[in-house]
Amino acid sequence: MEQIKNSQLTVEIADHGAELVSVKDAQGKEYLWQADPKYWGRHSPILFPIVGSLWNGVYHVCGKDYPLSRHGFARDMDFHLIAKGDEQVVFALHDSAETLKKYPFHFNLAVSYRLKDNELHVVWHVENPDDKTIWFQVGGHPAFRVPDMKQGEPLHGRLRFDNSEPIRRFLAEQGCLDRSRHEEVRTDKGVWSFDTHSFDNDALVFDHSQIRRIELLDAKGKAVVTVQTKAPALGIWSPSGKDAPFICIEPWYGVTDVDGFDGELRDKYLVNQLLPGSSFMSEYVITIG
Predict the structure, then answer these.
(1) Which residue has the higher pLDDT, 200 or 215?
(2) Among residues 261, 271, 285, which one has the least CA distance to residue 136?
């Protein structure tokens, strides 16, 4: 476990999965979900080399099948600490004999966490050391405690989006996207109220960069947590029917498979391409208060 700290925030990150496990303010108040397995036993997994699920649980590279579980393997692997300072830490994961069985490419994945005042910057850096083009998806899955919820209460909360127009979401089919079916998510001047049934059709998945700033509001309408991203897709999720007291706000460079998709990895919707020797870098920012 590694810790970074400044005058406003104290953040802890696990070596396993390079997973963010705690974000506290100067008064010691915790904002990140604490992985109660009764509801969901994770805090903020890193999604790589896929986001979401694969149709029939497999993808294809040059005609060969590769089974891979939901959200890929990075979240379940130990990362190496490669840099550490008072306010920044960097973890890395490289291809291995184990990963090559699941993902037939050489890669370097680095994840850094950096504090700036009351902001936590989460940066992904993917490098292609291979002699051929690689394809991948990457995403975040941070879960935040819903403010003003008491023990045993039904899930209730509000998010404020930087888009007050009706927002188009995908509907799902067997855990994958049905691109022929959409519905509008309407808000009250950008404010969306949610409960456990808001997720009966699984996560809300938005593409086309419709939302870039999301605020988690308290009962008075004040932003408690803000997530900012330039990612092309966004997922919002809490487990349906459990009244779990958390909400996930997930920046994604990629989405779960479209239903019935049986093509090559390179043809997946919102897949990223890296030529030999090239790299990809992006970040999202969590602001507390």
Answers:
(1) 215
(2) 271
SS3 35: coil
Task: Please state, in angstroms and rounded to a whole number, the distance separating the CA atoms of residues 35 and 273.
Answer: 33
- The residue with tokens 């003003």 is 148
Strand bridging mode 20-25 / 9-13: antiparallel
Task: Output the six-digit token pair for 252.
Answer: 């994604």
Question: How far apart are the C-alpha atoms of 46 and 202, rounded to whole Å?
Answer: 19
CB 77 within 8 A of CB 47: no
Closest C-alpha among 288, 286, 289 to residue 122: 286
Distance between CA atoms of residues 136 and 273, nearest Å = 7
The total of structural domains in the chain comes to 1
CATH code of the domain containing 138: 2.70.98.10
Kindly tell me if the per-residue pLDDT of 100 is higher than 70. yes
Q: Contact at 8 Å (CB) between 166 and 268? A: no
The DSSP H or E segment spanning 24 is strand 20-25
Amino acid, single-letter form, for residue 2:
E
Cα–Cα distance for residue pair 65/105, rounded to 1 Å: 14
- DSSP for 186-223 reads --BTTEEEEEGGGGTTSSEEE-TT--SEEEEE-TTS-E
Domain residues for 66? 2-288
At residue 182 the predicted structure's pLDDT band, cuts being 50, 70 and 90, is confident
> Taken in order 110, 111, 115, 119, is the CA torsion positive or negative?
positive
Residue 174 confidence (pLDDT): 67
For β-strands 246-253 and 143-145, DSSP reports them as antiparallel
